[in-house]
Amino acid sequence: MTHQDLAKDALARLLYEAEEQIVQEATSRLRTSSSPHYRGMETIDLKPRIQDLFQAYRESAISGDPRFIAAFVATIGRKRLRQEYSLEELLLVVNVLSRVVWETAASAFHSRGAEAFGDLLRLADASLGAKDSLARTYEEEIKQEREAFARLNKAFSEYLKVRYSESDLRHSKEDQGNLDQA
């Protein structure tokens, strides 16, 4: 975004100027949350994650196109779900960041009144795009896990059929031999 664009777009200017403050506040809130993965995590480890998420969020909010945040969240969401993060934890990150951005924007735009509505609507679109992407990613991951479980279950059932068929055949031959001896 050029300096001329920033001068015209109050939301873009705010999100670039307040980046450090927003990222720091979101990081702090997550570190004190009830999330097992984020609670107590070192700032040095968590802050870059929040900064990357914020930058994707900012691009979506400025452009009015939630695809930036949706693509980022889908990629990170898959990775975190495989690391056994819960959907609630992933939504917590999006919610915390969205809340900090919203609080920052509402405070900065308070005097603009209805004029700020469009800017705030773009923030809401970015948040909804992130949450929708997380939900779709989670659903996709669960579907893949269920399909993998079904394949394993089928293979195990086939194994048991073969195993017990051989066992039944062996027992039948033993029973027949016992009957012949009697």
Describe the structure in your own words.
The chain has 182 residues and is an all-alpha fold. The protein has a single domain (3-144), classed as Phycocyanins (Globin-like), CATH 1.10.490.20. Helix content is 84%, strand content 0%. The chain has 7 helices and no strands. Helix 3 (19-31) packs across helix 6 (87-109). The longest helix is centred in the C-terminal third of the chain and has 65 residues, at 117-181. The chain is elongated and about 100 Å long. The N and C termini lie far apart (95 Å).
DSSP strand count: 0
Domain module tally: 1
Name given to the CATH architecture: Orthogonal Bundle
Radius of gyration: 27 Å
What gross morphology would you assign? elongated
Order of helices and strands: HHHHHHH
Largest sheet: none
CATH superfamily: Phycocyanins
Q: Remind me, CATH topology?
A: Globin-like
Separation, N- and C-terminal Cα atoms: 95 Å
Mean pLDDT: 83
Could you name the ranges where pLDDT drops below 50 across 5 or more consecutive residues? none
Beta-strand proportion: under 5%
User: What is the helix tally?
Assistant: 7
What share of residues is helical?
Answer: over 70%
Give the helix/strand class: mainly alpha
CATH secondary-structure class: Mainly Alpha
